[in-house]
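Posting this for the archive.
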Amino acid sequence: MTDTTPAEDLKHYAHYHSLRFKRHPHGVLEIVMSGEGMNKSGLAAADDRMHRELAEIWRDVDRDPHTRVAVIRGEGKGFSAGGDLGLVEQMADDFDVRSRVWREARDLVYNVINCSKPIVSAMHGPAVGAGLVAGLLADVSIAATDARIIDGHTRLGVAAGDHAAIVWPLLCGMAKAKYYLLLCEAVSGAEAERIGLVSLAVEPDDLQPRAFEVATRLAQGSQSAIRWTKYALNNWLRMAGPTFDTSLALEFMGFSGPDVREGIESLRERRAPRFPGSGEAG
């Protein structure tokens, strides 16, 4: 394989609209969460299309003969926003939508884990929602020191499904995982590195250069050795599959309950949630 790949090879990804792609030397593919998924705050929001495309992209990366390593990053003011509230409301109201998004959420996690190519994430600003799934499950996760990593599920009124149960306890330990996930506390990039939630934290101006430096080193290494090492290490995540499946089922059961509706309204009204029965013992 040559160091550069003709631009027309990106036709492989022409059907994506919320993700933007660029080829880099040595088989590094840059994936930018952007396009139609940008919200008014300048963040890539996980609307219908973005959610589906984030689940699908890793299969295409795995099959792409021109890609050795993928780098995923956000555009604008942050890495990724939370789920689009319109989509969340549809999930609460419509069983078919809820079932479809559940399948996509499951596929996103397992497709990242099973992608044979190494994935590097470069997280800046807020990192929330479906984008955060790829960001923290990436093989090398790099955050700006001032990034804000937030798993917002309990703030919305549903269990922390997505990626949290499968990877947070393994990365930063059960005590830290429970603290941040139960309380919905934000984690800075610097703190995320300290507790082991991300691989590296770097100054904001160094984020993209460091991510592409790491990706280039991976792309120039022994592909069989690197991919087989990733496969073996990810068996730790595969063993946690039943835990993940349970968390995801409980999350999506929550979308049929009353708390998520208060979560939606409180986010729209920019106020603290008043969950039904929150003052009572459970």
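Confidence is low (pLDDT under 50) at residues 1-6. Residues 7-206+218-268 form a domain with the 2-enoyl-CoA Hydratase; Chain A, domain 1 fold (CATH 3.90.226.10).
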